[in-house]
Structures are given as C-alpha cells and as structure tokens.
Amino acid sequence: MNDDCKFFGTFSELRYFSRNSLKMIIRLATITDIPAIIRLIAEVVPIMNASGNFQWDSAYPNAQVFENDIAQHQLWVAEIEGDIAGISAITTDQEPEYVHVGWDISEMAIVTHRLAVSLHHRGKGVAEALLMQAENEAIMRGIKVLRVDTNTANQATQRLFPKVGYRFSGETGLGFRPNLRFYCYEKRLV
Prior knowledge:
Helix content is 27%, strand content 32%. By secondary structure, it is an alpha+beta fold.
C-alpha cells in the first residue's frame, strides 16, 4: 500500500480512500452478494486458467463455498461505487499440509483464502485493502500470525504478498487441489 492511501473505520467496515478520491468500502459479505461474487469468479477464472494458473475452475470456488463463508462471518467484499470489486475469506482455517513448510498449525493464525479482484478494478489497491482487513482482524482478535497460500503459477500474488510484508515460507501441495503446488507466505505482527 502506498503512502498516499488512508484506512479508517471500524473493524467490521473499513473505508479506504486514495489521493484520486477513490472510495472503497470493505465489509462483510451478505447472502445477497452471492450473484455478484459468482459473476466476479466467472470473470477471473478464465484469465487465471489462460495464464497457466489452474487453482480455480468451474467447480471451485462455488456458491456453496461462499454461502458457508458468509454463514461463518468470514467472507469480506471490497465495494467500489456499488460494485463488488474484490473478495476474500478471512479465516483461522489452516490446511494440514502447511506443516510441510515448517508452520506450526496449532498456532492460531489469520489465513486469507479465496482472494480475487474483478478485472474492472485491478490496479486500485483492492487486494491490498483486503489483506489489510485480514491484518485488522488479527489485531482485533489478538492473533500475531497471518498466513496465505497461492498457486505457483499465480505471478500477481507472488509479487503482492511480499509487497505488503508477507515472507515466503515454502512450497506444498494441498489435498483438496491435487496435482497443484502452492507457495506459502506468512506475516508476523509485532
């Protein structure tokens, strides 16, 4: 996040403003957001696949996954001018395979899953704002560790995570996405 950006608000709704007067609201998703979220996923999956990133496909993530996230109050949306610009599940759910990168998964961590940004809103700091919300959740809950994984073919997130303070921890497979490899990143709060 660059220095000309500001965050303020409560932990349940974070507003983000930049110098160019862009107004972004980060809020918990509701069930009425599902159609827009599914449209966003349908928009980004072909681009991901075309770049060689097969982390997501026509079966995952799906409406049921997002409905479960919403029921658990862990799906966040970034909204710009009434549009869902991005989404992120901010959870404490750690994959068992994280132990392969040396992480102690018994240690409580905030984990970002299902991070996606609409093609129409790329370059506006949406992913950074959603990762900042994950950090806010960690602070609010007194959790000192943030974790995230990404497909080895996802070049954008491999640039993004270190930019916002995450350190590369290693590579692993994930049982629910066989035949794919994932890079794991961690950020520790002081």
